[in-house]
Structures are given as C-alpha cells and as structure tokens.
TrEMBL record:
InterPro entries, sorted: Kinase-like_dom_sf, Prot_kinase_dom, Protein_kinase_ATP_BS, Ser/Thr_kinase_AS, TPR-like_helical_dom_sf
Organism: Stenotrophomonas daejeonensis
Cited PROSITE patterns: PROTEIN_KINASE_ATP (PS00107), PROTEIN_KINASE_DOM (PS50011), PROTEIN_KINASE_ST (PS00108)
Keyword Lipid biosynthesis applies: no
Alphabetical list of Pfam families matching this protein: Pkinase, TPR_12
Segments forming domain Protein kinase: 85-357
Full protein name: Protein kinase domain-containing protein
Length: 821
C-alpha cells in the first residue's frame, strides 16, 4: 500500500504524464517510477483508466458543447450586415462568440476585417454605456503589435460586435515551432508583443486573456511581427449579468479565477509569464505549481526533451542551461501567485527580458554570482573564447583572469567579476559535465589555477579563498582526495589568519575538508575537522547555522562508520529536523534528508528510510534528471536499503543500471563504479548467480585497495564481501583464510565495536561451519551478535536478524553433531 508521500508523488506524476501524448506515457512512467514497482503499477492503472474514460466521454461532451453553441449563437449566413460590414465566412469561435471574415459592403474601400459577434444577452443601459466606453478606449490604441479596432456596435437584439484588423498569422507558439525559432528569437517576439500590452496599459486597457492564440505572428516586410488580438474581453458577462474578468486556464492569473477579484495590469504580467514558460520549454504551466521551465523540461522523457530542444534549434543540455541563465527567474517572478510580489508592471518585466537578451542577469535572479559571471562571458565574446571543451574553457578562463586582474588594479570591484568568471569556468570541471575528457589535463589546469589564484588574487583574500575552495571541490569530484586535502588545509590556514574577514570561508573550508577526509576513509581526521567546524559555527552569525547543520549531518556518517549507531541517529535526525523549514527542493535540505535516511536504513528502519530516499529521488529527478550524479547517489542509497531489507530481486536490476550510468559518466576506473559493482555482486550472490557475482566483488575490492590502501574502511569492507563470495563459490578454506586476514585489520583499524567487524565475524563463522570447525564457528557467530547488540541494542531485530540466524544455524549444526555421537 502506498504511503502519504508516495500518494503525493503518484498524483504529481499522473498530472505530468497526462500532459503528454498517449504514445509517450508508458515511457515516462518507466523513467520516473521505475524505482518503485508499486507506484509504477498504480500510475499505469490510473493512466489507463484516464485514457479510456477520456475516449468514452470526449466525443459526447464535444457534441453537446457544439450543440449548445449552435443553439445560443447560430452561424450567420454570408452577406449578413453589421453596419457597413458584410460577413463572408466563419474563421473562428470561442467562449465569447463567433469570429467572421468580413468586408466593407458599402464600397467605400476594400478591406478584409475580422468581425466578432459577442455572445451576450441583451445589454441594459448601464452595460451598454460600459461597452461603448471600452470601444472608445480600444480605438485609441495605435501600436504595431496590436490589431487595430475599426468599428463596433450593438444589434437591436442586444448582441455586441467588434470589427478589428484581420491578421494573417499563426499563434505565436505554433509559428515559433514551425520555424524552429531559438529561445532568443522567441523572447524577442514576446518582447514585441509585451510592448503592445504596455501601450494598452498606458491607455487604461487590460487585455485579461493573453495566450498564444491571441498573439498571432505573421511576416511583415520579411520580418516576423506579433499582433495581439481580442482586446475587449471585459464585455463578457457572467451568470449574474455582471462584467467578468475572463481568462483562459493555464494563462489566467489566480486572482482572475477568484470570485469578486478585480484584474489589473499585473494579471497581464502573469499571462505573459505563462506564455514565456510555454515558449521556453514547450510545456504549459500548471495552475498552482512553481516549477521553472528548466525543471519542467528536465522532468520529461529524454526523447521528448530532444524534440522540444530541436524545435528551438538546440540540444536539451544547452536549452536547460539557457533557461537557468535567467529565463527561469523571470518566469517565476512573473507568475507569482500573489500579485504583490510579481513584476509591478509589464514595463518591469520587459526590462528584465531585455537585460537577458543583452546578456545581463535579470533583476529577478537576485545576486547570483555564477550567473553574473556567465553573462559577463556572453557579453564579451571577442575577449573570452567560449568553447564546449572543458579544458579549452579553463585555459581561456585563466587567460581572461590575468587580463581582468590588470584592470582590477584601478577598480577593486572588477576583481570580484574576475573571480566570479573564473569560478564559473572551473565549475565545468565536474566529471558529470566533462565526461570523457582527459582527467589528467583537467587536474593540471586545476593545479595551475590554484597557483595563479594564490599569486594574482593575493590582494583580495576573500576572493582567493572562494576560488581555491571551488578548485578543491572539483578535486574531490575527480576523486583526488589527497590533492584536495592538502589544498583545503592551505585555504583553512589562510582563512584562520583573518578570522573576522574570512569567517564564512573558514567554515566552508572545514566543511569541505571534513567531507574530503570522510570520502578518503580517514574517519578520525574527519571527526576532528567536523568537530572544529561545528564549534566555530556555534560562535558565528545566525546566517551560518546551515553550515552547522550540514556538518552535523556529515558527522552522523562518521559516527555510523565508527559503530556509534545511537549517536549517528541523533546527529542525523537533528540536522534533518533543522532543515525542515527550508524549501523542499533545496540541495542542503535534500543532503541532510539523504544522510538521515541512510542512518535509519543501517539502523534497521528500512521503511522510513525508503520513504525519505524516494522523496529525495523525486526532487532531484524533477530538477536535474534521473541520471544526474546527485540523483544517482540517492538511487544507490535506495538500492543499498533494498539489499539490507533482503529484497535482492528489486536491487539487482537497479544496480545494473547504476553501474552502466556511472561508467558512462566517470569511466571504468572510478570509485563510483567500484562501489556499485560491489553492491551488485551482493545482489547477484544472494539471488544464486554466484559465478556472475565474482568479477564484481573482485573489481570492487581491487579498486579500493589500489586507491585507498589495504587498511582503509572501504578496502576492509570490500575484502569482507569478497571473502563471503569465496564461500558461496565453494571455496571454504580460501574464504576462511581471507576473512581471518581482514578480521585482523578490521579489529586494529575500525575496532571491535564496528558493524563491518561484526559482518566479517559472521562470514568467518559461516566459513568455519562449512569446514566442520564448529567450536570456532560458534565463537565467531556469538562474537558477531554481541558486537551488533552493543551497537544497536538487544531490541533492534532488523539489525540483529542476520547475526542471530547465523548463530542459530551454528548451534543447530552442533546439536546435530552431538546427536550422531
């Protein structure tokens, strides 16, 4: 049965799936719910029911709607006169009435026009005056982006009609897709349309129903020009006969949907934001959601992303980057649910769009340093040779840094721009972005960047610390832990020498250094560093509390690895609860949630752990995609939980996918690949695929020994797993020898009171039992159980289950042996 979180995820995925064509829905389900078979079954069932119901209801409802339209507003024959205008044919219809192609019937001049006959009851004197007032306002509007109003009137039966310029064009979204317009071209068209809306607002007219179908694009002198139609929607009346605000779901502002609320200029701002959302990513925004265009695009199946990107003459990756470079921020501000926090006018919205077109950060993005740096590069293409190759981009960045620093001697603020630029360039070193590029070259460029930062940024120590910290983070991403640790120690010393000016940099250096020690299996040093960081954070300003919580969360992993399960659970829970008030999609909150889930899992609370991990996977998948490194890390954690729960059939295919994904990102010689292969070996062995498991166990063990040394935590753990596999493969003596050797290392480096030591003891008991050495087997099995009881307590059945099963098996064998004496 699905829990509350899973039901929420089910609803969200169902709404996303039903926005797609039917042929793409099954692929979407497998891509976004494949980690949860029950969720996947429920989602497929809901979609099937929805599809069937839609097919059964759609035709009769459509026929009923058409019948109602015909009854209330019958189609008028050609030649019907409205003043000097004669109808030719129907060219459209909607909620307000029918639109006809018409011409002048009095021969005064030849002109095609669009005549809308508004479907309203008879207008009383008050509403008659209101309609005439609207028409006078509309006639005053003279702008290239607005369809001109030529005439208006009221029939004897009370139906109003408007005559406007006939536009030979297509809805702006259709026109852009047919011409494969780039994101920049789409924004330029929307700016032209927005200028028309701004002009109308200056005349006191609000459109109230801006949507792609009401912004038609045609060619004028070989150039695309948008024309806004359908001003005058305020003449529509509601059930009580009052003037209605109108609007179209998906583009209509929230206040327009509320009874008694009045639309103002900010309602049109919302609608322009909704149009920008659709033009940018090809997805109409859903009412009540706050997903940026890049997030909506990322949530779609890969094939759909490629199709939408191709319609914008680019690739999904480039399109997502363009959207994150300011369009996301503009859309989210324009579409705020509360009108008071939107752009205060269309003019302000247009100003931000023009800033984006000119490669300046939009004001809606706030002070985002990496965005300012990237826009700086785009504005100065002749100076900065921006390339798609990471190494070339890094070298170019360093050259520009030197140039900028010379200029910065005259103006200190420009040094900040330079450091931001260098930071944004170095950010592309992440292997998830660089993929198959030469790691050696990237490391060499990072080393050179570090030397030059120390030399050329010495006059600005805060900037130097920021840049060098980013270099260290990238070294950790490349699994160069010794380089990163040495580098972080120097940053730590630099920051400590200026305790007041560089307090934030000092805290960040300790945080990242603790993470580097943890990644390198240097647990005692990780503990000491994080202790120091937490103590410093406690003495610092309140805005640094998130660093305290983050380091406390990381400290829980150290405690868990050292066998202090209760302390690990307390630390992880405290950090998780501390971040509870942060936005659900915030990376720091998700990191703390993930660590808490892992501690819960290792403590035997598997159901609670899996619910939290699925929540984090859902957030990362929506924002970054299913195969982004952050998403993969949490998918790996969920697979580990399945292993701990002995659900090997679920774990095995997911681990196969993780091995493939990590290999694509990092290559064969990677700790990520080695870790996933080790877990895959365990799943295969438990499923009886012993021979297939062996190469994975051995590869994981050999990688960790080669890269971390034979006494590292990961080396000890993977050797223990390999020893267990030897027993499963029928090589009991080799298993006992291997586990005996690794037990000596575990007790010396990890201590007796460690879950890893307990697992090695349990495996050794199984090997001794297979060799018929019952006394030794019982001794090791009892010791394993005692260690786990000391760590988790005697009541934690999930954590103690395997140890008790092994001891019971040994004791049963002993009783059987005595019975045969």
């Amino acid at each position: 049965m699905l829990n509350a979180d899973a039901w929420a995820r089910l609803g969200e995925l169902f709404h996303q799936a039903t926005e797609l064509p039917e042929s793409e829905r099954t692929t979407f389900v497998h891509a976004h719910a494949g980690d949860d078979p029950e969720l996947q079954r429920e989602l497929l069932a809901l979609i099937a029911a929805d599809t069937d119901a839609t097919r059964r209801l759609r035709d009769p409802l459509q026929h009923a709607a058409e019948a109602t339209l015909r009854a209330s507003d019958p189609e008028l024959p050609p030649g019907t006169r409205f003043g000097p205008w004669a109808l030719e044919r129907v060219i459209g219809s909607g909620g307000m009435g029918r639109v006809y192609l018409a011409r002048r019937a009095d021969g005064a001049y030849e002109r095609e026009v669009a005549l809308k006959r508004v479907r309203t009851p008879a207008l009383d004197a008050r509403r008659h005056g209101h309609f005439e007032y609207e028409c006078r306002l509309l006639a005053q509007m003279q702008h290239p982006a607005i369809a001109q109003i030529h005439d208006a009137g009221i029939e004897p039966d009370g139906h109003a009609w408007l005559v406007m310029e006939y536009i030979r064009g297509q809805p702006i979204s259709t026109w852009c897709d047919q011409h494969a317009s780039s994101l920049r071209q789409r924004v330029e068209l929307l700016v032209k349309a927005g200028e028309g809306v701004q002009h109308a607002h200056q005349k006191g007219v609000i459109h109230r129903d801006l949507k792609p179908g009401n912004v038609l694009v045609g060619n004028v002198d070989g150039q695309p020009l948008p024309k806004i139609i359908d001003f005058g929607i305020a003449v529509e009346t509601d059930a009580e006969g009052e003037v209605s605000g109108g609007g179209t779901p998906g583009y209509m502002s929230p206040e327009q949907a509320r009874a008694g609320s009045e639309a103002d200029a900010r309602s049109d701002v919302y609608s322009l934001g909704a149009m920008l959302h659709e033009l940018a990513c090809g997805v109409r925004p859903q009412a009540g959601t706050a997903l940026a265009p890049s997030q909506c695009l990322q949530a779609l199946p890969a094939q759909k992303q490629r199709e939408l990107a191709a319609l914008r003459s680019t690739t999904p990756r480039v399109l997502r980057r363009e959207l994150r470079d300011g369009v996301d921020a503009i859309v989210l501000k324009a579409m705020q649910a509360e009108c008071s926090v939107r752009y205060e006018s269309v003019s302000s919205l247009l100003d931000d769009l023009r800033r984006w077109l000119a490669h300046y950060p939009p004001r809606a993005a706030g002070r985002v340093r990496w965005l300012a740096a990237r826009k700086f590069v785009r504005r100065n293409r002749l100076v900065v040779s921006a390339t798609g190759v990471v190494a070339a981009a890094l070298v170019a960045g360093l050259l520009v840094t030197s140039w900028s620093l010379r200029q910065a001697r005259q103006e200190a603020a420009r040094a900040k721009v330079t450091s931001d630029f260098l930071a944004s360039v170095l950010d592309s070193v992440d292997p998830a972005i660089s993929q198959d590029l030469d790691k050696t070259l990237m490391l060499r460029v990072l080393d050179d960047a570090s030397k030059r930062a120390g030399r050329e940024l010495a006059a600005w120590p805060d900037i130097q610390a920021d840049v060098e910290l980013l270099i260290a983070i990238n070294q950790i991403s490349l699994e160069e832990y010794d380089r990163a640790i040495a580098h972080l120690q120097s940053i730590r010393e630099l920051a400590a020498s200026r305790p007041d000016a560089l307090r934030f940099q000092h805290l960040r250096a300790l945080q990242v250094l603790g993470d580097a020690y943890l990644s390198a299996d240097r647990l005692k040093e990780a503990q000491a560093t994080l202790d120091e960081g937490i103590a410093l954070a406690e003495r610092s300003q309140p805005e640094y509390r998130w660093l305290l919580l983050d380091m406390q969360s990381r400290q829980s992993w150290v405690a868990l690895a050292q066998g202090r399960a209760d302390e690990a659970l307390r630390l992880a829970r405290g950090a998780y609860e501390g971040f509870a008030a942060w936005p659900a999609g915030d990376d720091k909150r998700q990191d703390a949630t993930r660590r808490y889930a892992n501690v819960l899992s290792f403590s035997g609370h598997h159901d609670q752990a899996m619910a939290l991990l699925r929540e984090v996977i859902g957030q990362h998948t929506r924002i970054r995609g299913r195969d982004h490194p952050l998403t993969l890390a949490v998918r790996r954690d969920l697979a580990i939980t399945h292993l701990q729960q002995r659900d090997f059939a679920t774990a095995e295919p997911e681990l196969q996918r993780l091995v493939a994904a990590y290999t694509r990102l990092y290559g064969q010689d990677s700790g990520y690949v080695a870790g996933a292969r080790g877990m895959l070996g365990s799943a295969l062995r438990e499923l009886g695929k012993v021979a297939e498991a062996g190469p994975h166990y051995r590869a994981a063990m050999e990688w960790h020994i080669a890269h971390s040394g034979p006494e590292a935590f990961s080396s000890v753990a993977t050797r223990g797993n390999y020893g267990n596999w030897l027993l499963a493969a029928g090589r009991a003596q080799e298993s006992a020898d291997e586990l005996g050797s690794v037990l000596e290392i575990a007790e010396r480096t990890l201590g007796r009171n460690s879950a890893v030591t307990a697992e090695i003891l349990r495996g050794l008991a199984d090997a001794e039992l297979a060799l018929g050495r019952l006394a030794a087997a019982r001794q090791h099995a009892a010791a394993a159980l005692q260690v786990m009881q000391d760590i988790y307590g005697e009541q934690n059945e999930a954590a103690l289950r395997d140890m008790r099963e092994t001891l019971q098996k040994v004791e049963k064998a002993g009783l059987q042996a005595q019975a045969h004496l």
